[in-house]
Amino acid sequence: MLDAAPAVPSVEHLRDLLVRLGPERIWRPVPGPDGGLLAPGEGPDMDMLAGYVGGLDVAGKSVADLGCNLGYFSFMTRRRGATRVVGCDIDPEIVQVAGELAKAHGLGRVEFRAVDFLREKPDVSCDMALLIDFIGRQGIAKGRLAAVAAAAAAWGRRELFFTLRPVYRLDDLPVAPDALDRLYPGAVRDGRFHLADTLAGLLGPGWSMRQLTSGRLSGDGRAPTAKAALLFTRKDA
């Protein structure tokens, strides 16, 4: 495990922890408490990420951030009024550093857990679960969508928020179309794999799905390379 700092970690200590993690394990930008950038991350920059949650209402809600990495969206939702945030990641060193970042930013009621949430049942259920950019090509190809849907519904009792590509071209997935059709019967139509519809089917009729339009992820979400923000709401909530 990485060494933890007492009380409020210094910027220098945080930089050291991030260097020891290595850039390949840091998915998103890591801003410091002084406003400076501690690490750029491997994915989109902060300007692009600002549009990911769009008009998502988290005020007064408890939130589970599944696949949280270093807590970028955990911190964002807490600042937007979430009453409690539980960030979950499978990597214990990532979770430890995320906790240090929470202390450095002075954010209470944000906790991080090292947990394989696709296999382990939660001991807490939040109002909302976030799965931001969690579902991608490999997860689809390995047949993990049912496990993802079950985990999301277990952690989020009322709302589930995903960012994903609703539709994939078949040649953009690392699995043969016939194997894909066996994994997800009926999901391959018109030469495409329909991820959003498949996810909705796995969650079942108790959830309603809508695409949030106030974010800046994509245009209409129907292009095979466009990403969308989807919110599922439990109908009896």
Order of strands side by side in the largest beta sheet?
A: 5-4-3-6-7-12-11
What structural class results from the helix and strand content?
Answer: alpha/beta
Q: Report on the biggest sheet.
A: 7 strands, mixed
Poorly predicted regions are none
Task: Describe this protein's structure.
The protein is of the alpha/beta class and 237 residues long. Helix content is 29%, strand content 24%. It is built from 8 helices and 12 strands. Strands 5-4-3-6-7-12-11 form a 7-stranded mixed sheet, sandwiched between helices. Strands 8-10-9 form a 3-stranded antiparallel sheet. The protein has a two-stranded antiparallel ribbon with strand order 1-2. The longest helix is centred in the middle third of the chain and has 14 residues, at 92-105. It is globular, with a radius of gyration of 18 Å. InterPro entries: Methyltranfer_dom, SAM-dependent_MTases_sf.
